[in-house]
Amino acid sequence: MARVTLESVNKHFGTSVAVEDFTLDIPHGSFLAVLGPSGCGKSTVLRLVAGFERVSSGQVLIDGNVVSGPSLHVPAEKRHVGIVFQSYALWPHMTVEGNVGYPLRVAKVRGEAYRSRVAAALDMVGLSGFDTRRPSELSGGQRQRVALARCLVMEPSLVLLDEPLANLDVHLRASMEDEFRAFHAKTGATMIYVTHDQAEAMALAERIAVMDKGRLVQVADPHTLYSEPATTMVAGFIGKGALADAEVLAPAEDGRCRARLFGMDVMLRCQANQPAGKARVCLRPEDVALASEGVPATVRRATYKGGVTEIEAVPESAPDVTLLLIISAAPMVGTAVKVRIDGGWVIPAP
Amino acid sequence: MAAPPATLGGASSLTASFLASWSSEKLVLALVVIFIGFLSIVPIGRLLVEAFFIGGVPSLNAFGEVFAQPATWRALRHTLETSIGGTLVAVVIGTLMALLVALTNVRGKLLLVFCLMLPMMIPPQVMALSWIGLTEPGGFFMRSTGIGTLFDTNPLYSVGGIILVLGVQSAPVVFLTLRAGLRAMPADLVEAAQASSAGRARVIRDVVLPLMTPALLSGASLAFIAAVGNFGIPALLGMPVRYNTLPVLIYRKLSGFGPTVLGEVAVLSVLLAVIAVVFIGLQAKLLSRRDFRATGTSATLLPYDLGRWRFPAECFGWLLIVVTLILPLSALLVNSLTPAYGIELTPGNLTLNHYRYVLFIDSVTRSAFTNSFFLAAGAATVLVLLAIVFGFFLVWRPHWLLRTLNSLADLPYALPGTVVSIACILVFIQPIPFTQISIYNTIWIIFAAYLVRFMTRAIRPIVNAYHAIDRALDEAGAMCGASLLERMRTIVLPLIAPTAFAAAMIVFLAAFNELTISILLWSAGTETVGVMVFNLKQAGDVLEASAMSCLTILLTVTLMAALSAFGRHLPSGVIPWRA
């Protein structure tokens, strides 16, 4: 197992800043997803941990040893870190066996030990008997499994995954997600999984680190991230829902506060130290419902989702806000409705 | 099942191993950088110092002295008139053939293109010798057709002759750049013109050719620069009538007076370089005046159906090939098989004696073949190995120093070959620093000049190949714990090998057929094949020269054909005649 620590890491390429003041501790054996829109610097964080890039300042530690610092850089080949690449990075001039066995050949593992370890790795990803195939003869899913087997054979204590599902068909993704979960369970390795797909991150990771414009915005388990986003960026990026302006009327008590929203007095969830004053509120579909009393609104769109209908309702008092509701029997588009506010999360002031 | 993290042991062992690996990587890089830096900067720099400094003080006196001689002005005028004339001929032939091949449905394009490309790979001195054989009034062709009686002397020994042969030699370059441009032209631009009910001729005149201006200009400037630096053609065709271009003047001065005129020829070669640089600048300026950027989907243009004009068009294309290539080469072959000069070749007196003589009997020609083979194979090997390491760092470990070197490496190939030769003489006439060894007057000075000259021909395709390889393939190797050298051997080399092999062949061909550089650097015993063909011709041994030329053509065509067959495995742009 390995523990990865990033301390005030900065990385810039020329004048452009890729990663800024990034501090994060990833404990032994945990499964962390790094999530963010494209260009947010998440892949750079991965490459810094892998040793492909040098830090501009700050340091990266693996198991308490500095591997990247201002004056020290352990190259990737000395880090013993498994990596699964977005492009699979299989060598076209080698067979499946040649690809999977490469780390062993580099480590001078020969003979029976070599054969049995390659066979075991291929067996684990369900590709026994594929030894002599070329990567070009395999499907995308099979290629990713070969890449995973190559990683597996190294028996690494830390595995980095760089958008490993980005090039796969949707129907293949679920089975590969299972594969990664099984990999984690079997090896107990610490895993860092970079993705821009929040559903993927939610499904796989114990903790998610959300990045935006090179900075770490929030690190939390998926449930907290969804229900208590730290910023409007996280609220908008994770899950569905609406953002609205509210006036907190009194400071927080027991994690709740009284606030004025769409001209009504409501109770909202908030941080323990939430002061009174203006604030932004994140309203998930679970926080709102149609009722006989509530905020007057107009149904603007209804989308049937199979079993339930997702409707968009625009409050009369805030025409720039689109509330999202999930209900079983939808009213007609254009109908006037009343929306009851059952909850909502006050986003902490930056 | 997680293994103990053996390689992540103590911090001290990490530091030690890091130092070991990083320093070997840096050492390799430093060596390559110094070597390429030396080849691309030192000779040209030394030449500039020689021309612009006298006794360490900046001075233009050397230029004053050289320009005081009428011969300089004459050679300058001759260089410009033959180069401009040759470029015009090349543009006409190249454009017609490019339009024919790229825009119409003529048959047998593959063979047509191969024949069109041949003059580019055949060395100029061989081309000139072939044409001389064709137009010699007493020769086989002129006599058997009766045209020979119209001339007292060979009509090719003239300005017109030089222009014609230069044009034929440079036409492939124009053809190639224009065809590449036509292939990249968005089809919808043509279709839009057709939709505006423009006929074929109008579409070509109003849309195709204007859009092709950049391709045409760059093709023309490549042809012009090649013509300015050409030695073989103006030397063989101009010297008999005392018509000297700058490269020929430099050769005559240096072979007549030796190193005492080095200062003078340095100035002349700077003048030659200036012509090339001015022309490149002029082309860039012309192109910047208008917007040639084509937008739209770049679907391949459907060829025009020529209908009943197809056969005449094919005839025209092949007639051009026959006149500019097949007839001259046949004349060369006929000469090489004729028993003695002035005797008419008949099936009965056909002989291989000249081949036997140059290959087995004469020790000088024999050693010329060995010399050229050694020089070409050596330059190809060294440069390709250098390029493989350089490309690795340039593309995957970008650094401003590498990028600068990458641009500088083009310089010795962009400038005329004569310039490189003079620069190398200036650098190597003194002993190598800290040693008593001088490579001047040995075969090694030719080798050094070839390294300088052909460096970019190895670097360019290999760098492009690196750009086409996913960097993650190397990173995956690093992840597996493989050191740089191990990755080079097991991952990078197998991936880059096809391109490296082709690049080596191209450098080999170019070096084996080379004359412009070796003619200024050879000494007794270090003759190259090019020098030998030239010297035999000058000594009047035309038949032996022809036999040697035929052998080089045979080698060239064989290697070209082999590369073309191999070409399917290569990224586009590696093989020049397939561009």
State the main characteristics.
heterodimer, A: about 350 residues, alpha+beta, Rossmann fold, 5-stranded antiparallel β-sheet, 8 helices, about 25% helix, B: about 575 residues, mainly alpha, MetI-like fold, 2 domains, two-stranded antiparallel ribbon, 25 helices, 2 strands
Q: How is the secondary structure organized here?
A:
The complex is a heterodimer of chains A (350) and B (579).
Chain A (H helix, E strand, L loop, with lengths): L3 E10 L2 E11 L4 E5 L6 H9 L6 E6 L2 E4 L13 E3 L11 H11 L4 H14 L15 H14 L4 E5 L7 H18 L2 E6 L2 H7 L2 E6 L2 E6 L1 H6 L4 H6 L4 E7 L7 E6 L2 E6 L7 E7 L4 E17 L4 E7 L7 E5 L8 E6 L3 E3 L3
Chain B lengths: L10 H42 E2 L2 E2 L2 H7 L2 H34 L5 H13 L2 H12 L4 H6 L13 H26 L2 H9 L4 H12 L1 H17 L2 H7 L7 H12 L4 H27 L21 H28 L15 H9 L1 H34 L3 H9 L2 H4 L2 H12 L14 H26 L3 H8 L4 H29 L5 H4 L7 H10 L3 H25 L13
Antiparallel strand pairs in B: 1-2
Helix pairs in contact in B: 1-13, 1-16, 1-19, 1-20, 2-13, 3-7, 3-10, 3-12, 4-7, 4-14, 5-11, 5-14, 7-10, 7-11, 8-9, 10-13, 12-13, 13-19, 14-25, 15-16, 15-25, 16-20, 16-22, 16-24, 19-20, 20-22, 21-22, 22-25, 24-25
